[in-house]
Design brief:
4-stranded antiparallel beta sheet, alpha+beta
Length: about 130
């Protein structure tokens, strides 16, 4: 019995090492990815990548990343979808248009990051939605 379990574990590890390889999406992102989620069928990433204003969306048709919305002023540490809306949290205080956000924002219907209530008085590291 012990040999069977050991053999199964070895086989499982071998299968993971052969089939479980990571590849980049497009040319990858120019910095550290700190959060990733799927929203409206698209992949969104947040992190510290200034050329994409710290939050990006992957375009499957062109296999490339672009700025999500109007971007955010500093790094994004978390992304969450709640009630059909994409939220971001992190070290940012402004969107790409210069509007004050205070560490938390939501992507609105016109593809612009907007303030959520009064925001927070310090950066966020995580967001969570229980689905309701």
């Amino acid at each position: 019995m012990k040999k069977t379990i050991t053999l199964q574990i070895v086989f499982l590890l071998a299968a993971v090492s052969v089939f479980g390889q990571w590849t980049s999406l497009g040319s990858g992102l120019p910095g550290r990815v700190k959060a990733i989620t799927v929203y409206n069928g698209k992949i969104y990433a947040g992190g510290a990548f200034n050329t994409l204003k710290n939050v990006a969306v992957f375009n499957e048709a062109t296999a490339s990343w672009s700025i999500a919305g109007d971007g955010l002023s500093d790094s994004v540490t978390c992304l969450a979808v709640h009630g059909g809306t994409l939220y971001a949290g992190g070290y940012f205080k402004f969107n790409g248009s210069g509007d004050s956000l205070m560490y938390v924002a939501r992507l609105n219907a016109i593809n612009k990051w907007e303030r959520v209530y009064t925001g927070f008085n310090n950066f966020l590291r995580c967001l969570y939605s229980d689905g309701t």
